[in-house]
Each structure stands twice: as C-alpha cells, then as structure tokens.
Amino acid sequence: MFARMPGRLAVVLAALPAATGLAGTVNRAGILEEEPADLPRRRLDDEPNPYVCPEGVKASKEQWKVSGTNLGGWLVLEPWITPSLFYQFLGMDVKWGAMAGHHTAMDTFTFCQVLGPEKANKQLRQHWKTWVREQDIAAIAATGATHVRIPIGDWQYIPYGPYIGCMDGANEELDRALALCEKYGLKVLLDIHAVRNSQNGFDNSGEARRVKWTTVTSQGVGTSTIFEHWPLRSADWMGKFELTTLSYPEIDHDNVNFTLQVISKIVQKYASSPSIWGLEPVNEPWQFIPIEPLKQFYWDAYWITRKTAPHWKFVMHDGFRGYPAAWWDFMKGCPNKAMDSHIYLAWANPGPIHSFLSSACSFRNQIWTMEDLVDMPIIVGEWSLATDNCAMWLNGFNDNLPGYPKVSCQMMPCPAPYMGWSQPGCPPDASLPLQGPFGTGVSGPENGKCPIGVQWGDSEQSAMTALASKQIHSFNQGHGWMFWNFRTELEDRWSYLASCARKWFPANVSSIEDETADACLSHSCEDQLANDADGASCGMRIDWLVLNQEYTVADARIKVGHEFPEQCGLCAAFPPASPPTLPHGTPELTLEYTEAAQERLSSGVEPSILATTAETGATTSHQAVWGMMLGAFALAVLALGGYSKSLRAYADMAQVSTQESEFASTAASGASEAGAGQSYVPF
C-alpha cells in the first residue's frame, strides 16, 4: 500500500548550510541558514505536479492557531534536559579506560545498550513517572495553552535492537499523558522525534550517530579516553550518508518503509483518540537529505494518515530548509497540512539584548512570507528564551560544538535529582572538577556546580518578558507555536512552566489580544541604533523599509525641529491594525547623515522626511527631495504582492524639480492609501 520501490537510486546532494528553521537563523550545528541561489524555479500551471490534492484547499487561510509546549526529554531522552539521568556515566574514562565507550550512554540508544534492557527499563519507568506528572499537565493548561507536542520514538511501535525490553511500558505512559491532556482540555501533536538510524545525527533523534572513541596519551604520561561526534555526525535513516561528499549515494527504501509502517500503526492505534490533534511523521530531518525523497516520504505518510484519521493535522518539519523555493507547490490544495519550523536564538552570535529583540520581531515577516508563497500554515514547533549555548550538555553529553559556548557561562549548584536521591550518580561529587569522558568540546558539572545561561542583570525580568512577547507576536503571524521545553532540570529559559511562573509569558498565552499583540510596536532610540546605521547600505536613498520588522535604521540621525537626540537612530514601525498617526503640528523632521554615509553620497542635497498621516492620508513634503526612484520603488513594492501595505514613507537623495516632487508626493499618497495610511513615527 505504501511500500517504496527498491533498487539503487543515485542521489548526490550539494552541501547546503543548516538552519534551525527560517533563512537567516542559526542551527544547532552553529551554521547560518541561507537560501541557495540555484534552487529549482516554481512549476508552471501546465507542468505536471505529483503532489496535488483535488480539494483545492487554501490551507494558509485556515482559521486556527496553536499555543503550548513540548513534553521533551521524556519518551525520547536528551541528557541536557534531564542530566540527573546521565550523571551515572561520568568518570567512565577513569573507571574503564579504553573500554569507556562500552559503558557511557549519551542518548536513548546507548542508555538501553549500556545498561541492558532490565536495568535500563527499571530506571526509565521511574523517569517516565516522575518527569511528566499530572501537576505538570494541569499547570500547562492553566497558562491558557491549547496544545502540547509529545516526542515519541519509532521503537515504541516496532521494537528493534537495544530498545527491545528496554522500552516496555512506554506506550502505557503515553496513554497516561493522552488521558491527562483530555482531562485538562489540551490537544496533542504526536511527534515521531526519533527514527531508526537517525534522521539528523543529534542525540534527540534517539542516537548521536557515528561516535568515535580514541585513547590518547598526554605528554607521554598517562592516557585519556575521549570521543568525537560533531566532526563525524551522520544520519543514516534515508540511506548510508557519505561524509566525504555530504551525500546519499542511494536511498534506503527498506528503512523508509519501516517508518511508514510505524506511522500506519500509530494512526490505527490512535485515530479515535479525542485528545490527538495531529501527527508529525519525523522531527528535524537534516538538510543533507535530498528534498525530493523527503517530499515523497511526506506525501506517502500524508495519505496513510489521511486514510484512517482524515481529521488529524499532518505537520511536516521544514527539513532545515525554511524558504519558499524548497517547497513550491508541494501538497498543493491539500487539507489539514502544516509545516513546522524550529527557530532558536541560542546558537546566534552574542550581542546586546536589543539585537535579540529585533531578531524576534523580524521572524514575523518571514513566517508571513512562507505561508503566503507556499500556502502552508506555519507552526513554530520549537523555540526558547535562551540567547546563548550555556545550558549544560545542550550540544551533547560532556561535549560541545566547536567554538561554543561563545560567552562566559554562569554556574549554579546542580539541582536535586527529580527521580529522588536513589538515582545512581546523583548528585555529582562536589569535590571533583570536570569529569570525563570528554568530547571535542567542554560542558559538564564542576565541583558540584552546573553551567547555565548568562543573565541580563537588573534587566533580566524586562528582557525575558520582552523576548517572550516579541517571539509570540511573530509566531502568531503564522499558525502559532509550541515552546521547547515544558520543563528542564537546570534552565528556566528552556522551561515553559518556569518561564510562566516568573511571569515572562503573558497570563493567558493563547490570547492574541493581550500585550503580545503590540509587542513589536514598541520603540526606543538607543546608542547602538546609530552605530548600526553606519553599516547600512545607503546608495541614493535611505532604506528605512524592512517589511514588518520592529524598526530599521538609516544612514542618518533624526532631528525633530531644532532638537537633536544625541546618537539616536530612526525607529519605524508597521502596526497590523491600529497604526499610529503623525500628529498635526509635528515639527519639521530632517535627517543628519553619519560620516560613513556622507562619504558615499554623490549629491550634496540634504534630504527631509516625507511623512504620511494616517488620519487624512495626506502627504507633506518639507523639502523637495523626491525623485523618480520613489515611483520605481513603489512599483517594485507593489509587485511583491501584499507588501505594498508596508510602504508608508520614503525619502530619496536625488535633486529634483518641483514637477518631479509633485509626482513623488502623489505616488507616496497612493501607496499610503493602499496600505491603510500608516505613518513613520519618530521616537
């Protein structure tokens, strides 16, 4: 019914950068996502498209939203979420020497393998019972959340390898969670987080794929056992990954069919469950998996799901390719589909808090664009409030990404184990420094203390509240969000319940009428804005317009009348519903260029701002500075489809005649009326 054709399929994939989700974000591997320039063009209407549904549904226009969190680190283990479960594997290099690799667990696969089915299952049953409790589900519901995403492993439905016996009781635990979600009114997205042979090489896939253990001698005295993962990371779910060419010479149809069989079993088992809202067939398949085989897998899984549970939402991860060209016309016209994009700030470069707040607001337009061009409801299924990589073991047990963390992390006493003091290895010995075995990076408990993220000092509360509100605001431009994770042992910035308790989140997270609705409309002029202005591209016009972002900075500073705010950039907003107006009697607004901008100017004409009032739609030109470039710019914006609503005001550097100035005023007025007459407002 859903079996793939066997045989050899030569697939060579060019190396693409990875991402957490949207273009411009940085992924868990610390790599910037950029849209490749050579992606296939969009199909023409008369060209064959194998991924079309006859219903012709416009899915992005469906009126639904999700808000909630993930029950991560539960049925699929992640050492950084529950380090107490993995302290028992510290010091194995000292105890076992060259055999340390046989006694060290760093993911679900090796946890079962190292401890064996009986011992591992005993610990897991205690872990399952104490990590997700009724009080947690009740607390999530009390925040106003509507949904939870529950990561599961494929081994729960067709056990294999070390999971046989080790995972006994996991499905009963899932049934317990589903019953609790039904009791408290939460809907569930089942997420196949881990598949056989790993879809991304991360520990969250069940197996940190390809770990090499090595014994080294230090200055000729003594030996140490270390391991390598990040330089060798591979994912063999879709086929045997060739590390030297970053490609899949052939697709493993048997393995993909295995996953489709798992999906079939899940759908048959839970189709009538009142709490299940949807299914995600695989979490975070990495960017090296060829896009067409991935699409074919999604297409097959969609029809398996739709046949038995047509009311479920079918949610597909973007495969670390969160840009429209990767998904042109895919599943065109199909109902009950959505795309999941994971957006994290934790792997970005360090910076002041305003840089993270600006990024948070910039996601809004990217999500809107994806939904509009791809016709795919976008859910941000994972995000957090972390702005650094300090969380202990975030990049793997006793390991770290090369070059991470990029800041000096803070330390706190390692917390009491959530499973009780009888848990082996708890607490870490406070008399010991960092313990091995070590990966190629450093992260771990030291003298009884564990690393956590850097705080924002006296601004911590306001910074975290603003960061939460701005991200929620952006993600609600799509079809909602689910925070990662519902709780952690160490890090509040990764804990939904702790963040809510600290009032970083709104009182009711599912209400878009609260403070998050205006989160990206707040402005402040800061010294850094003027400094950032020096790096902006000016040319013959001032590029203030960046669609739907919180603000943009010109190569200029603003003057209001004769007052000059020292080192203050121009802040501009794009409110969705209630645009601010430029009050009558506003003083003349002029711009003073920075030195860097002046050096690039070919004209000595001093420009002014052309401001449009929302009340009347009238346009006021304080000086004749507009040129034909404005008309061309307005036409270009209109051609982008839907973006014209963001055109509010523009100033050009060209020296023009009175006639040209009148033309520019008319063009700006027309564009303003098309966009509900919104204004730039100085702050």
Please give a structural write-up.
Residues 1-21 form the signal peptide. Belongs to the glycosyl hydrolase 5 (cellulase A) family. Residues 125-386 form the Glycoside hydrolase family domain. The chain crosses the membrane at residues 624-643. Pfam families: Cellulase. The chain is α/β, with parallel strands linked by helices and 683 residues long. The protein folds into two domains: 59-516, Alpha-Beta Barrel (TIM Barrel), CATH 3.20.20; 523-674, no CATH class. It has 14 helices and 16 strands. It has helices spanning 92-96, 108-115, 117-131, 134-142, 170-183, 253-270, 291-308, 353-374, 460-475, 496-501, 527-533, 595-600, 628-639, 658-674, and strands spanning 66-70, 147-153, 187-194, 212-217, 223-228, 276-280, 313-317, 337-342, 378-382, 410-413, 449-452, 480-483, 556-560, 589-593, 610-612, 619-621. The strands form five sheets. The chain has an eight-stranded parallel β-sheet with strand order 9-8-7-6-3-2-1-12, with helices on one face. Strand 8 (337-342), helix 8 and strand 9 form a beta-alpha-beta unit. Helix 6 packs parallel to helix 7. It is globular.
